[in-house]
Amino acid sequence: MGNYRIAVLPGDGIGKEVTKGAVEILQAVATRFHHQFEFVYGLIGGEAIDQKGTPLPDETLAMCRQSDAVLLGAVGGPKWDQNPPHLRPEKGLLAIRKEMNLFANLRPVKFYDSLIDSSPLKAEVIQDVDLLIVRELTGGLYFGKPSGRHVEDGEETVVDTLLYKREEIKRIVTTAFELARKRRKKVTSVDKANVLESSRMWREIAEEVARDFPDVKLEHMLVDNAAMQLIRNPKQFDVLVTENMFGDILSDEASMLAGSLGMLPSASLSTSGPSLYEPIHGSAPDIAGQNKANPIAMILSSAMMLRLSFGLHEEAKAIEKAVQQVLTSGYRTADVARNGQRIVSTKEMVNEIKATI
Ligand code: NAI
Ligand code: MG
Questions:
Q1: What GO MF annotations does this protein's record show (predicted)?
Q2: What is the pTM of this model?
Q3: Is 68 a catalytic residue?
Q4: Global ipTM
Q5: CATH number of 314's domain
Q6: Which of 261, 287, 301, 335 best tests ligand 1's pocket when mutated (most atoms within 8 Å of CB)?
Q7: Which tens digits make up the pLDDT trace of 340-352?
Q8: Is residue 113 part of a domain?
Q9: Taking a C-beta distance cutoff of 8 angstroms, is the pair 55, 45 a contact?
């Protein structure tokens, strides 16, 4: 029996609905396996701006640092879209990643057989897909300075900077190799080395790291080709490792292999201190508050938390098995339902998974 303190940051939009579901699932796991999970709640994103005047209040950050792990829903929404840059919900997300040193974002993409008809792709392409995108999360274009607008030679000018330090590249590529060693032993390093100097250095460092992992195969792939290969033949991939923005885009694309954004969990590992777990989707303003969102991405994120932060493998498996079973029994939220299938709400889906656990 273990005691764990979990910081819950529901955020905005469907973030609130899906985190509520995940907490219920974790409570069911606690009961079944005799653990104590203490949940503490904090503000981040748009609601934090409304209530505290900042997208990441200090007390939220302090609370997260004093917890064993963090669960995050999603932030953002049209209400805050016209805000100045420092008062945008997404700033809260970038800030927590940076402040907690969440350098490695692990995004597993797994195909569930029972969703075979929900994907726009052919069965033979997606069946047995099991890949892991390792996205660098605290560098690159999202953080590089200079960034912003100014006037240059009388003309309105804008700049964003893709900046990495050697050690930042080394640690993310090393993480990818370590993970590949426990899987099918192949790393695809994705870059744009034909154009970008940052990518050429990334490639060099990947080669250096590879020497320490003779049992793991390294290949390089240009990001535009990788985008195409993910649809053409996703089964060729085991672990993909890439810089922040490439990883963001490729993982949304890869979510279609699993059927929906609402199916993909993620873990953000820290260099020190607690890790953070969140679905890869956003706050989905188009369906927020309608009890329609697929809670599975968030629920599978909480399973990743149990496994990676707490070492609770049986418990994580119990969640994953329950999800699989419920899908196999035909329960579908709207995003993964096909014509004629009965559609369940967020709450019904959560209840069914809970009952199965
Ligand atoms: P989104 O991921 O929120 O939604 C994209 C589409 O997928 C929408 O049609 C939505 O309804 C659907 N969708 C997403 N999650 C779903 C789920 N669990 N179940 C069923 N359908 C789901 O991305 P979008 O629309 O580009 O962004 C909306 C807001 O979310 C923006 O403010 C954006 O900045 C923010 N965002 C936040 C993220 C985060 O907090 N980590 C990540 C991505 C976007
Ligand atoms: Mg994204």
A1: 3-isopropylmalate dehydrogenase activity; magnesium ion binding; NAD binding
A2: 0.95
A3: no
A4: 0.98
A5: 3.40.718.10
A6: 261
A7: 888 999 999 999 9
A8: no
A9: yes
